[in-house]
């Protein structure tokens, strides 16, 4: 029970942090700050994974998000000339409608969550090592096709991103 | 069989040949008429010998065409052929210089064919067909000189009047076929009860139209617009006769109620038309009115239950009236007109012709020993013997007096004026007329055998009848010769000259309302467009989202719908604002709706 | 040999050949057109020679198309469709001859006409519900372009009106077809006829849908308003085809679909249909009487004449005695053919008059009979045929219709008034246009030339032939109708 | 239902709501993508929670998490690619300026 | 594993082709890239034939080799080849030409994943893969319109994709499996079912451009090269339908999705045609028309599990749609993007005009063209499934569609504008048009050969 209560408390804490930083993302007037808030939010999500004993995924999440957000911050500084916090411009529109949409989405999701009988909870998760091994077997067995598809998706993303982002100067060279 | 074919096909073939070859139509006409006469004689001979010739030809699946020459129809066929032959002979002279000869003779021969078809028809459909074709042929003949003013109108009027009345024949035929289940005439004559009464009255309506009975008499006077041979033929044995022939043939079927109606219609007509004839100032129109009057007498006979007597009078009248018309035509030839004033004294110029004319006129007045004397007496006798005698006899007598009167007047006018020079001799015309006058005189002798052949004994008439007949005939002639019509008719003169038109006649009663109705329909038609438009508009207004269109044209709902749809398309298009966030918002709303529908859907299986 | 298929598609194939030809001059186009329609006409004669079967469809040609849903290519003839097919092929041939003078976009015009012929023949020959609908609709498109491309002053508007009206009108038919399909699982019309698939309310709804469609097409009052507009604006050949062939789609469908596939519902609704037919006949006659435009007048008389057909079919549905049913159906079918022949001739003649005088107003003319005797006499003959003179084509048809009507619902005979009114209006038209004093302004008007005589002559000859000896035509109709009422 | 699952799923719901708000309200392409990241994070939380508290033996759950992470990454990559090309062309990635195509 | 791979041969060949194309692109040999691509597509098509009727799954059910995915390959692969040829005719000689070809093939691979999806993850990956590739393809021209289109497309795709993933995550919670075949376990959990379903419909609906998830489509098509617009309008769209069919086949009909999709179907066709009615840009007009066509395809999806005609309907109409829509776009490529460019086409290029008319009539559903056969199946399926009202709306919309397409036909009969008389059709496009024409006409008449 104590584990459970501890888990709950941690989940509440990190969850609150994730949501709070999520809100912050859209409340600052600087994109760099937004990026950093998003980084914190995602890290809190990663921490929740750790709390939920999905160590591998948790670590992955934190690392990936950290790198991704730093890319984003650099990107913004480089390309958008936004050093962070200088301009106090409003970057929103249809705010009220969006609030309604977000609110309704939230309400609906909560309704689904709370009105559904999810059945008895599993008490224990597999140990971390076991988990990773099972995930590996899943990856190379049943989900092989999915996994390879993901690979292809990444390849596509690379081709696509380079194709569009390549400097146009080259075009004149040909 | 061969006689039947000859009777019908000879005139038809000759007519078509005349139209096709367009040269020497007179020759074709003569040959056709002669062959037709030969055929009719053959038919009559064999019918008289007791052999009925009949032939059945395929037409409609359940209703073949039946041609039949029994004693009655063969007699009529012979009459038609004979009169036709005579009139055609006459017409060769009359039309000698007309450029449209080929068309004239072609049409005339087709007309004769149609008439023969009518008298020989053994089934109602053929009779109806022939009946209508006679109308068509008369339309063409009356309108022959259509370039002259008023002629086209006269032809149109003749056809329309008779066709309106034909509806009666249509309906009667439907009733009879529907009741008897066959279109043959013979079995349907056994029809009794209500169908017989309805059919009888409807037949009377049809006969009234064709035989120009009151109140459908108006067209007949105007039909004088055609060439004179046409008038002669129309009035004597064909168009006008067909109404009487119809009733004579249908007489066995007519119940008492229908007979009385026939008699009364005939009686009224004979008197009214007689007065019109007396008041007339044009010789041909006088003769036309007299025709209506004489057919009225025949209807009286039919109504009195003596159709054979009517037939006799029909035959007699055919010869008489064609003679009179032919004579009138010759006078017209001389004087270029048929007004009585213009014709004054014309008789003196051609005494021979006048003599023929006079013989025919006296015959019409009913003087012995001419044919009409016998038939008129028979009619009077029948009227006397009829249960409706109190109605029929006075009218029959009145008609007879008037016959004498207007003929007397005509003779007086023709004889009393100044003599003028004659033109060229008219051999063909005279020949045609001579034959007919000869018939007028001699036919009476044949009536006895004819009655015997048709199975009606010439029963002894009470003495009063010949006395009455002779009296009214002579009296009428004297009155007509000596007293001016204005004094004879008194206050009735003006209405008689107007043809006793009631309430504007058919023009006022039928034609004008019909045209008004048509105009109403046209207005309604415009209104229909507008209404369609209005419905469309109303629907659109209910939608309340519709942009108002300024154009007030009669586009109708269709165009409204198109505009509305395009408008809707524009609205849809405007939703596509180009702002991605708006699109996304719409999408979000869509998702919400989708979830709503998904949740609700199980309740709407 | 699949004669029906060849006949149906020969015209459109000829049209395609014409499209790929290098030389598409008016001469070549019209030559092609006459050759193709002529060959088609000969083929229909061959179909006629092969004969029909008394109890059902003959010469059936069937090719599986989409077996999963019971759709197939099915053609066949019976005594109802064969006369219409013969008439269609003849009218298209005559139109091809008549149109040989058209110079602007001749090739396109010819292709359109050929396409229309295929669609029209297909409509009468199809034994598959879908196929029927398709041909029915394609004919619509063809006529739309015909009016829009070669019509008179207000053609675009009239074409659109025509198109939308009949397109919207034909949708209910599609629903009915779907209904039949759901009832049987096949689109085979023979199956629908053999065992009417719907009953009760469903049958009544299907009937109402079909009646609506066919009433628009026929047209029946008050859905006729598209007709005068379309006719007045359509080119002459378009009017001829529209009145001669396409109006028959409505009445053909009325018998083939409404009468044969929902017989019980039709019998229930017969009185109402009869009433509409009667009103149409009378209204059409009076509306025609009010016209001063010759073409419009003839267009309205079509409403009148087609009203008689509707009366005939309704009476057949109402009658109890099978003999009367047969008489009514014989009359109705014959009336379709007669109307095709006579009205086509009238539209041709008015078109010829318009070619010469560029006017259709009756008051503009007078005394033309002596100036152009061929034209005049042809018009007089056709007009008298149209007003139902015995010895000409309409009489045997109308006689049977009225006979059956009086026997079944006597009040329906009030439509007889129509024959007097049409008599009046035609006589007035003849008197105004052709009789009377000749006017100097038309002194130079030429009479019909050979091409025009060739176009009108056969129609007049057939008008007389059908009127005098309808046996050859009504024989085949009768054979089928006798089987059909059983 | 265990309380932990409820907490975790509710956190997911919260992230979803915030993300949806962001995606709809932001004018800048990059900011919208941040909203998308938050929605995807919500999905991640859901999936991990479902795996942990309902189906710990079904490794497809973790697999799904990996897939969603991949999606996050590649979408960002292509998103930046497009942002760059747009920025080069117009000097801004404001969505409100993108109104050439409409109707 | 060996067995599984043998069934996956077409996909593997295509994947290898894509790699080779990328390698060749590094050498900047665009024509080689194209050749490899076409050869690979042809090979993959041929390799599909042996497994067409396999009716099995591979990798524990995550990917299906069944009738839908088999026919999907036969439809999508030739369609892609045609699109490649069209693209070559349009962008030959531009920078990164080969990348575009490679990307097209990769996107097609994603489309194949979608149409054979047996697992939620495959659906997700398919949507994302096709999406990512498409964004880049749309942005290919890099002008203002192209980048704007790509940006909108991206935003739309990213948001709907994320919503889809969030919704689908509940399915895992509810069923304890990511396999579509285990969706039956969701009975009794309506909220979970509906949430996931909504997610799925949003994600695939955006891909297939249903109302109201279609907003991106006209903009994206307009901004993209015409050939890419054509490609997107047929390949990714039909793939989304196949995926939807794969997923919904395993869902109980009582869940209410047939009704919801029927509503969407009706809304989609009506909206699409209404909007198309007022367009003057041909590409946009065709975009809206393709939105409307989605509505028709959806009729088949609605009938899944209730009518034997549903799957054949989807397959046949998809095939017809690919042929006729590609054909119509190809003609537009020759003629120009504006409605007025069609003026006088009937006079200057009669064959081209006739081809366009055939495509448009087929899109309307005039028999005996291919599109009609497909629609017939769809209508039959919908009616069988008890959605008569939907069929009626479909028929009414067919009328509307006639109005839409006649707007294209009518100007072709006008007098030529003059300038257009000089244009000529590239050889490649002629080939594509001819092939599409043959398919549209031939398969319509020979419909008896199609799967029943």
Automatic annotation (TrEMBL), chain A:
GO molecular function, one term: quinone binding
Keywords: Cell membrane, Membrane, NAD, Quinone, Transmembrane, Transmembrane helix
Gene3D superfamilies assigned: NADH-ubiquinone/plastoquinone oxidoreductase chain 6, subunit NuoJ (1.20.120.1200)
Entry keyword Cell membrane: yes
Membrane topology: Multi-pass membrane protein
The reaction(s) this protein catalyses: a quinone + NADH + 5 H(+)(in) = a quinol + NAD(+) + 4 H(+)(out)
The keyword Transit peptide is annotated on this UniProt entry: no
Signal peptide location: none
One of the record's GO cellular component terms: plasma membrane
Pfam families: Oxidored_q3
Domain of life according to the entry: Bacteria
Transmembrane segments: 6-26, 35-52, 99-117, 145-167
Record EC number: 7.1.1.-
Main location: membrane
Compartment(s): Cell membrane
Entry function: NDH-1 shuttles electrons from NADH, via FMN and iron-sulfur (Fe-S) centers, to quinones in the respiratory chain. Couples the redox reaction to proton translocation (for every two electrons transferred, four hydrogen ions are translocated across the cytoplasmic membrane), and thus conserves the redox energy in a proton gradient.
Protein family per UniProt: Belongs to the complex I subunit 6 family.
The protein's name: NADH-quinone oxidoreductase subunit J
Native species: Allgaiera indica
Classification of source organism: Bacteria, Pseudomonadati, Pseudomonadota, Alphaproteobacteria, Rhodobacterales
Automatic annotation (TrEMBL), chain D:
Record's keyword annotation contains Membrane: yes
Keyword Membrane set for record: yes
Alphabetical UniProt keywords: Cell membrane, Membrane, NAD, Quinone, Translocase, Transmembrane, Transmembrane helix, Transport, Ubiquinone
InterPro entries noted in UniProt: NADH_UbQ_OxRdtase_chain4L/K, NUOK/Mnh_C1-like
Class of enzymatic activity (EC top level): translocase
Superkingdom, taxonomy of origin: Bacteria
Transmembrane segments: 6-24, 31-51, 63-85
Subcellular location: Cell membrane; Membrane
Signal peptide: none
Gene Ontology biological process terms from the UniProt entry: ATP synthesis coupled electron transport
Catalytic activity: a quinone + NADH + 5 H(+)(in) = a quinol + NAD(+) + 4 H(+)(out)
Gene Ontology MF terms: NADH dehydrogenase (quinone) (non-electrogenic) activity; quinone binding
GO CC aspect terms: NADH dehydrogenase complex; plasma membrane
EC numbers for this chain: 7.1.1.-
Record membrane topology: Multi-pass membrane protein
Family, per entry: Belongs to the complex I subunit 4L family.
Function: NDH-1 shuttles electrons from NADH, via FMN and iron-sulfur (Fe-S) centers, to quinones in the respiratory chain. The immediate electron acceptor for the enzyme in this species is believed to be ubiquinone. Couples the redox reaction to proton translocation (for every two electrons transferred, four hydrogen ions are translocated across the cytoplasmic membrane), and thus conserves the redox energy in a proton gradient.
Subunit description: NDH-1 is composed of 14 different subunits. Subunits NuoA, H, J, K, L, M, N constitute the membrane sector of the complex.
Protein name: NADH-quinone oxidoreductase subunit K
Originating species: Allgaiera indica
Lineage per the UniProt record: Bacteria, Pseudomonadati, Pseudomonadota, Alphaproteobacteria, Rhodobacterales
Gene: nuoK
């Amino acid at each position: 029970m104590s584990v459970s209560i501890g888990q709950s408390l941690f989940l509440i804490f990190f969850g609150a942090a994730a949501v709070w930083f999520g809100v912050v993302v859209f409340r600052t007037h600087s994109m760099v700050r937004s990026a950093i808030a998003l980084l914190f939010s995602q890290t809190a999500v990663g921490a929740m994974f750790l709390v939920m004993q999905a160590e591998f995924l948790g670590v992955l999440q934190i690392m990936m998000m950290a790198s991704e957000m730093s890319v984003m911050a650099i990107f913004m500084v480089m390309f958008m000339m936004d050093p962070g916090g200088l301009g106090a411009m409003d970057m929103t529109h249809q705010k009220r409608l969006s609030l309604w949409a977000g609110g309704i989405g939230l309400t609906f999701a909560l309704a689904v969550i709370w009105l559904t009988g999810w059945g008895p909870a599993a008490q224990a998760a597999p140990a971390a090592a076991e988990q990773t091994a099972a995930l590996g077997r899943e990856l190379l067995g049943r989900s092989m096709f999915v996994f390879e598809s993901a690979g292809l998706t990444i390849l596509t993303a690379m081709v696509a991103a380079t194709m569009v982002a390549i400097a146009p100067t080259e075009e004149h060279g040909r | 069989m061969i006689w039947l074919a000859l009777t019908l096909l000879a005139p038809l073939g000759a007519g078509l040949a005349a139209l096709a070859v367009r040269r020497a139509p007179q020759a074709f006409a003569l040959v056709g008429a002669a062959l037709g006469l030969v055929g009719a004689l053959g038919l009559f001979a064999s019918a008289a010998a007791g052999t009925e010739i009949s032939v059945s030809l395929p037409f409609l699946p359940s209703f073949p065409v039946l041609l039949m020459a029994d004693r009655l129809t063969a007699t009529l066929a012979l009459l038609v052929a004979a009169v036709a032959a005579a009139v055609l002979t006459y017409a060769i002279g009359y039309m000698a210089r007309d450029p449209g000869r080929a068309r004239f003779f072609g049409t005339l021969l087709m007309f004769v064919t149609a008439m023969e078809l009518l008298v020989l028809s053994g089934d109602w459909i053929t009779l109806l067909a022939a009946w209508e074709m006679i109308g068509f042929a008369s339309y063409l003949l009356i309108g022959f000189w259509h370039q002259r003013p008023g002629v086209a109108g006269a032809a149109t009027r003749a056809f329309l009047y008779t066709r309106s009345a034909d509806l009666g024949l249509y309906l009667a035929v439907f009733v009879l076929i529907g009741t008897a289940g066959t279109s043959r005439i013979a079995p349907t004559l056994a029809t009794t009860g209500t169908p017989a009464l309805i059919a009888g009255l409807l037949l009377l309506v049809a006969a009234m139209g064709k035989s120009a009975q009151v109140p459908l008499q108006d067209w007949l006077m105007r039909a004088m617009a055609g060439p004179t041979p046409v008038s002669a033929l129309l009035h004597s044995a064909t168009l006008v006769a067909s109404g009487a022939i119809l009733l004579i043939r249908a007489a066995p079927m007519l119940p008492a109620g229908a007979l009385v109606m026939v008699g009364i219609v005939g009686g009224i007509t004979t008197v009214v038309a007689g007065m019109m004839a007396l008041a007339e100032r044009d010789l041909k129109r006088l003769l036309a009115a007299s025709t209506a009057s004489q057919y009225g007498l025949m209807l009286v006979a039919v109504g009195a239950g003596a159709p054979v007597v009517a037939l006799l009078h029909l035959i007699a009248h055919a010869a008489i009236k064609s003679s009179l018309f032919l004579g009138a035509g010759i006078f017209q030839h001389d004087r270029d007109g048929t007004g009585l004033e213009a014709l004054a004294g014309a008789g003196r110029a051609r005494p021979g012709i006048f003599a023929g004319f006079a013989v025919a006129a006296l015959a019409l007045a009913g003087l012995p020993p001419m044919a009409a004397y016998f038939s008129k007496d028979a009619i009077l006798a029948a009227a006397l013997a009829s249960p409706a005698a109190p109605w029929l006899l006075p009218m029959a007598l009145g008609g007879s007096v008037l016959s004498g009167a207007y003929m007397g007047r005509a003779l007086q006018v023709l004889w009393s004026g100044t003599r003028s020079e004659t033109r060229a001799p008219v051999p063909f015309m005279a020949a045609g007329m001579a034959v007919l006058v000869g018939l007028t005189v001699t036919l009476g002798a044949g009536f006895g055998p004819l009655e015997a052949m048709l199975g009606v004994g010439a029963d002894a008439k009470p003495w009063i009848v010949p006395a009455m007949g002779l009296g009214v005939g002579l009296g009428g002639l004297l009155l007509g010769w000596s007293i001016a019509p204005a004094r004879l008719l008194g206050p009735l003169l003006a209405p008689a000259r107007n043809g006793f038109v009631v309430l504007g006649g058919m023009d006022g009663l039928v034609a004008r309302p019909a045209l008004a109705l048509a105009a109403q329909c046209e207005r309604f038609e415009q209104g229909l467009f507008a209404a369609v438009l209005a419905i469309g508009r109303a629907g659109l207004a209910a939608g309340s989202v519709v942009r108002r269109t300024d154009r007030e044209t009669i586009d109708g709902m269709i165009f409204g719908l198109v505009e509305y749809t395009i408008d809707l398309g524009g609205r849809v298009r405007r939703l596509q604002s180009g702002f991605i966030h708006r699109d996304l918002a719409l999408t979000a709303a869509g998702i919400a709706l989708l979830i709503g529908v998904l949740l609700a859907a199980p309740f709407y299986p | 040999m699949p004669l029906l298929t060849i006949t149906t598609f020969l015209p459109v194939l000829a049209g395609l050949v014409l499209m790929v030809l290098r030389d598409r001059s008016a001469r070549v186009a019209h030559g092609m057109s006459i050759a193709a329609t002529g060959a088609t006409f000969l083929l229909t004669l061959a179909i006629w020679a092969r004969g029909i079967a008394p109890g059902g469809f003959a010469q059936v040609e069937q090719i599986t198309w989409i077996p999963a849903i019971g759709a197939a290519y099915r053609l066949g003839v019976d005594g109802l469709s064969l006369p219409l097919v013969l008439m269609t092929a003849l009218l298209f041939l005559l139109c091809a001859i008549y149109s040989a003078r058209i110079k602007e976009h001749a090739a396109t015009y010819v292709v359109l006409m050929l396409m229309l012929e295929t669609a029209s023949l297909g409509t009468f020959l199809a034994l598959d519900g879908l196929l029927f609908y398709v041909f029915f609709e394609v004919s619509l498109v063809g006529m739309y372009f015909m009016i829009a491309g070669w019509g008179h002053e207000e053609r675009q508007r009239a074409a659109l009106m025509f198109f939308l009206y009949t397109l919207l009108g034909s949708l209910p038919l599609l629903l009915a077809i779907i209904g039949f399909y759901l009832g049987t699982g096949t689109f085979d019309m023979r199956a629908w006829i053999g065992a009417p698939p719907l009953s009760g309310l469903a049958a009544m709804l299907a009937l109402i849908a079909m009646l609506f469609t066919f009433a628009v097409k026929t047209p029946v009052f008050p859905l006729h308003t598209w007709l005068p507009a379309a006719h007045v604006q359509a080119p002459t050949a378009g009017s001829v085809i529209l009145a001669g062939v396409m109006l028959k789609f409505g009445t053909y469908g009325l018998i083939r679909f409404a009468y044969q596939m929902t017989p019980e519902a039709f019998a229930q609704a017969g009185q109402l249909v009869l009433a509409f037919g009667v009103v149409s006949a009378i209204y059409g006659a009076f509306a025609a009487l009010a016209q001063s435009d010759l073409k419009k007048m003839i267009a309205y008389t079509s409403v009148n004449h087609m009203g008689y057909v509707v009366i005939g079919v309704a009476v057949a549905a109402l009658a109890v005695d099978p003999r009367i049913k047969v008489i009514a159906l014989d009359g109705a079918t014959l009336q379709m053919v007669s109307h095709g022949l006579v009205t086509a001739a009238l539209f041709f003649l008015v078109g010829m008059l318009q070619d010469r005088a560029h006017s259709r107003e009756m008051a503009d003319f007078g005394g033309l009979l002596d100036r152009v005797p061929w034209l005049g006499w042809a018009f007089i003959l056709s007009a008298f045929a149209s007003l139902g003179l015995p010895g000409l084509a309409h009489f045997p048809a109308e006689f049977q219709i009225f006979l059956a009507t009086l026997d079944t619902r006597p009040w329906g005979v009030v439509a007889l008034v129509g024959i007097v009114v049409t008599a009046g209006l035609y006589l007035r038209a003849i008197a105004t246009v052709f009789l009377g004093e000749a006017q100097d302004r038309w002194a130079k008007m030429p009479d019909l030339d050979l091409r025009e005589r060739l176009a009108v002559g056969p129609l007049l000859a057939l008008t007389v032939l059908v009127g005098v000896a309808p046996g050859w035509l009504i024989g085949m109709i009768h054979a089928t109708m006798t089987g059909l009422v059983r | 239902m265990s309380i932990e699952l409820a907490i975790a799923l509710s956190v997911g719901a919260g992230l979803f709501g915030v993300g949806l708000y962001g995606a709809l309200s932001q004018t800048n392409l990059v900011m919208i993508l941040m909203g998308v990241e938050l929605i995807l994070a919500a999905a991640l939380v859901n999936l991990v929670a479902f795996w942990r508290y309902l189906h710990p033996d079904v490794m497809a759950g973790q697999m799904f998490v990996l897939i969603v992470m991949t999606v996050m990454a590649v979408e960002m990559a292509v998103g930046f690619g497009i942002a760059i090309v747009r920025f080069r062309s117009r000097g801004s990635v404001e969505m409100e300026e993108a109104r050439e195509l409409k109707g | 594993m060996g067995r599984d791979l043998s069934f996956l041969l077409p996909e593997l060949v295509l994947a290898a082709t894509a790699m080779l194309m990328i390698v060749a692109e590094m050498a900047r040999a665009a024509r080689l890239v194209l050749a490899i691509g076409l050869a690979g597509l042809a090979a993959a098509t041929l390799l599909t034939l042996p497994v067409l009727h396999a009716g099995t799954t591979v990798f524990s059910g995550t990917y299906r080799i069944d009738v839908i995915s088999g026919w999907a390959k036969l439809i999508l692969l030739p369609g892609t080849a045609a699109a490649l040829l069209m693209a070559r005719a349009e962008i030959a000689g531009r920078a990164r030409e080969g990348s575009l070809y490679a990307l097209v093939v990769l996107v097609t691979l994603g489309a194949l994943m979608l149409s054979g999806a047996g697992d939620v993850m495959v659906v997700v990956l398919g949507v994302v893969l096709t999406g990512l590739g498409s964004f880049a393809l749309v942005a290919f021209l890099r002008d203002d319109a192209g980048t704007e289109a790509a940006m909108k497309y991206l935003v739309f795709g990213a948001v709907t994709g994320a919503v889809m993933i969030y919704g689908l995550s509940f399915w895992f919670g509810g069923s304890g499996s990511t396999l579509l075949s285990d969706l039956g376990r969701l009975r009794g959990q309506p909220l979970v079912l509906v949430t996931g379903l909504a997610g799925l419909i949003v994600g695939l609906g955006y891909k297939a451009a249903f109302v109201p998830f279609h907003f991106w489509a006209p903009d994206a098509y307009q901004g993209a090269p015409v050939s890419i617009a054509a490609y997107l309008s047929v390949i990714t769209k039909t793939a989304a339908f196949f995926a939807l069919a794969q997923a919904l086949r395993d869902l109980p009909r009582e869940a209410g999705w047939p009704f919801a999709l029927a509503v969407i179907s009706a809304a989609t066709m009506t909206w699409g045609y209404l909007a198309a009615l007022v367009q003057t840009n041909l590409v946009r007009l065709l975009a809206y028309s393709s939105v409307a066509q989605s509505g028709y395809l959806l009729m088949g999806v609605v009938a899944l599990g209730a009518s034997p005609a549903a799957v054949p309907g989807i397959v046949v109409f998809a095939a017809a749609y690919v042929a006729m829509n590609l054909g119509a776009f190809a003609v537009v490529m020759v003629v120009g993007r504006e409605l007025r460019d069609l003026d006088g086409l009937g006079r200057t290029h009669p064959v081209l005009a006739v081809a366009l008319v055939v495509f448009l009539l087929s899109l309307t559903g005039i028999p005996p063209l291919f599109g009609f056969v497909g629609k017939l199946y769809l209508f039959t399926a919908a009616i069988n499934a008890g959605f008569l009202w939907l069929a009626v709306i479909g028929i009414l919309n067919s009328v509307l569609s006639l109005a839409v397409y006649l707007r294209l036909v009518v100007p072709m009969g006008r007098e030529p504008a003059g300038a257009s008389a000089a244009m000529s059709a590239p050889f490649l496009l002629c080939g594509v048009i001819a092939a599409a024409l043959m398919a549209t006409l031939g398969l319509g008449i020979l419909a008896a050969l199609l799967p029943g």
